[in-house]
Amino acid sequence: MPNDLWQIILIVVVALVLLFPMIRFLFKPVKLIVKLLINGATGFILLWLINTFGGTMGIFLPINLVTILVAGILGIPGIFLLFFMKLILAG
Length: 91
Prior knowledge:
The termini are far apart. α1 packs across α2 and α2 packs across α3. This protein has one domain. The chain contains 3 helices and no strands.
């Protein structure tokens, strides 16, 4: 009987050791998606603030999926990139 208990404990420990990397691997995409959603929301808020308070100075960046993704992925440098691209392309 004591031999069976040690075998069960050993099987449980080995299963946990093998399952931990698999669970960690499965949660990585979820972590990335949550990070992109948070950054996208932050980008949207920054674009909205720029459009609200920059309108008096003639600064306007459209809020669409592309600008939100650029601002969300790149953060504040992405906002500057969008602004300079608009200046260059608008002539």
